[in-house]
From TrEMBL:
Pyruvate binds at residue 214. PANTHER family: 4-HYDROXY-2-OXOGLUTARATE ALDOLASE, MITOCHONDRIAL (PTHR12128:SF66), DIHYDRODIPICOLINATE SYNTHASE (PTHR12128). SUPFAM superfamilies: Aldolase. This is Dihydrodipicolinate synthetase. Keywords: Lyase. Belongs to the DapA family. GO terms for cellular component: cytosol. It comes from the Bacteria. The keyword Lyase applies.
Length: 307
């Protein structure tokens, strides 16, 4: 199944499980793939920033991709292939597409400084990967430092047909979704828009015209429920459910600590065997664990009240 501009729903950004000694835990990788789909994911995205992709070797990246794609059993898996050079992007991208990936996610390297450089980069990526490889453009200026204007994004959509999806992580960025959909209403080619940033603006993003979420959270069922309800027009119920999880979503937004929180919750729920991050990266301090546990208790209480 290859990605198209009509993709909708929730493509969970998967963690990469490690043992306490730092080796990839392939048994936990199987388990967390099953967990995400059991909790309502429509697809997965692997080897993203929250999947600790920069800490993997090229061989490990291929092994993880192969294992997840096989475990997904035909459900769509997008693979992050971002790298400093185009050769590495092409090598990993072609390899995972041969394995059965649905598409490749690519973000902007921080070296891009001008609008022509940004536009030219994605044209180069498309030529490197090939005409038949769907591309997810990850727009994440908070991490990359590269800001993609509406005009440049429009040129990429117009001139690089392999770009079928925007992973929208601009912040503030709700107006960008509105302007993108308005341009499509005037005749521009439609692309799918799935949103990241930990889902912190998810109800508003769906209301603005996003097709779903491409992010991670220790409770992926929240992402699935909010997207489903908001898409059906039941915004009040979607907001009520989102609000019940919002304190934990907010806690996850701490730079440098968010992934440790997510892995702690996933391990607590039995989705992975260990909450370990690969070095460099540390787990949660005792005080942070106590804070997360308090948030989880309050979340459970609120969800019971919402029935």
């Amino acid at each position: 199944m290859t990605l198209t501009a009509d993709a909708k729903g929730v493509y969970v950004i998967s963690v990469t499980p490690f043992t306490d000694s730092g080796e990839i835990d392939f048994d936990s990788l199987d388990r967390v793939v099953d967990f995400y789909f059991d909790k309502g994911a429509d697809g997965l995205t692997i080897l993203g920033m929250m999947g600790e992709a920069p800490k993997l070797t090229q061989a490990e990246s291929r092994a993880v991709a192969d294992r997840v794609i096989r475990r997904a059993g035909g459900k769509p898996v997008v693979v992050g292939v971002s790298a400093p050079g185009l050769a590495a992007i092409g090598e990993l991208g072609r390899a995972v597409m041969d394995m059965g990936a649905a598409g490749c996610m690519v973000t902007t390297p921080g070296s891009l400084k001008t609008d022509p450089q940004i536009h030219g980069y994605f044209a180069q990526v498309a030529r490197t990967l090939g005409d038949d490889v769907p591309i997810v453009l990850q727009d994440f200026p908070l991490s990359t430092g590269v800001h993609i204007s509406d005009e440049v994004l429009g040129r990429i959509i117009d001139e690089v047909p392999q770009v079928v999806m925007l992973k929208h992580e601009d912040w503030p960025g709700l107006a960008k979704i509105t302007r993108l959909r308005a341009a499509e209403a005037e005749g521009r080619r439609r692309i799918s828009v799935l949103c990241g940033n930990g889902g912190v603006f998810l109800p508003e993003e769906i209301a603005r015209g996003a097709d779903g979420a491409m992010t991670g959270f220790g409770f992926p069922e929240m992402l699935a429920d909010v997207v489903r309800l908001a898409a059906a027009g039941d915004m009040d119920r979607a907001q009520d459910i989102f609000d019940a999880y919002l304190p934990l979503v907010r806690y996850e937004q701490q730079p440098g600590a968010g992934l440790a929180v997510r892995k702690y919750v996933l391990a607590k729920r039995g989705a992975i065997g260990s909450a370990a991050l690969r070095a460099p990266g540390a787990g949660l301090a005792r005080e942070a664990i106590a804070e997360v546990e308090r948030l989880l208790a309050r979340q459970e209480k609120r969800l019971k009240e919402l029935n």
